[in-house]
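Table S2 (continued). Query chain:
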Amino acid sequence: LVAVLAVCVLGVFLFRLAVLPRIVAEQATGPVLAWRALIPEAALTAYAALDSAPDDEQALHIAETSTEPTLDGQTVSIAGFMVPLDATRGTTAQFLLVPYQGACIHTPAPPPNQVISVYAPGGARLFHNWQPVTVTGVMSVANQTTSLAEAGYVMTLDRLDAYRESAGDEGEFEQAEGAHRSPLLDAAQGL
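Corresponding output:
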């Protein structure tokens, strides 16, 4: 009887250790967004207007600061590059997620509607700024000014993983239309 009880306790322990975290992690994923999803139609229209009138300050303001209100309160996943705003022994409590490598550090910051300020209440593992990551969390449409960039979105982090190509990907990290081009990313893709 004691041996059976010990096996049952061991089984529950192993379930909680190995299986339960995977179930919770799978529940923490939301729809996977492309960076294009952060740019609303009004911004795309404004970008098109800038082609014919590049000095139109109002169109530029709309193009760069308009956010997608339907994302507010949604749990989503999105891949990008981590720009830590603080760092303590390999972890960060807040970082920016940007669509291209080197943004805010080696190149100008993307427009606010292409920057997500991510809060990791328990701290998040730091990844190199050249390594893409996938973040999952609850998105808020809110402007926030940081020391490196202005963000149009804020996310509370539920999950952070190294970026993995899915079976249908062609192996490219897609850059959103209207986002600033990255010379490093262009070189890596042979452009």
